[in-house]
Amino acid sequence: MNPTDRRRWPRTTCEMPVMYCIGRKEQFYPATIHNSSIDGLYFVGGNAIKDGNACRVLIEKNSEALTCPPDFKLCNATVKRCIPLPTTPQPAFGIGVQLDGWCRSMESSEIQKIFCRCDACEAEIISCDIRKMDGPLFLCPNCHRRLQEIPDGPLKESYLRCLLGNVI
Q: Whose CA is closest to 24, among 73, 77, 98?
């Protein structure tokens, strides 16, 4: 892994049309996926979404570049970053999302969860249970609780620097 790359999994480049909606609304907007990984997508769309908000991405065609399970067309996701793209003639936003799970259709209640790894213990856990720390650190609930029990000071700062060094 490139030491300056803060992503846990490699990205796969692809140009694929998709539709996305903000939250649970039924109004979808066109977008283009530019890259994907096991637990994330980066796409460009014309409507902004606030960081931290939920969104859904409808995959019009399955692609080998995406890691979605066969026959799953809709992913639930959390927006990690949405930035305006100044070099486009129309308003456009670069949107990075962390995938929370895949569904077969809009009506389906069955969600196949996405698993991630804790940056401290490397346990595999469901991504919605991950605790986000300052910066690019993600911890499982147990490691997060243990970290919170360490009093503020040099020991805690050193531990965080060590974890950050392992991620970056």
A: 77
Dist CA 78 CA 76 (whole Å): 7
CA dihedral 51, 54, 59, 60 (to 10 degrees): -100
* Confidence (pTM): 0.62
> Model confidence over 52-101: pLDDT tens digits?
888 988 887 765 556 666 666 788 888 988 999 988 788 899 999 988 77
How many angstroms separate the CA atoms of 17 and 15, rounded? 7
Which among 110, 98, 114, 102 has a CA at the least distance from the CA of 53? 98
pLDDT score for 93: 95
Rounded to whole angstroms, the Cα distance separating 134 from 119 reads 13
Phi, psi of 132 (to 5 degrees): -85, 130
Q: What angle do CA 9, 10, 12 make, to 5 degrees?
A: 130
What would the two tokens of residue 145 be? 């609780």
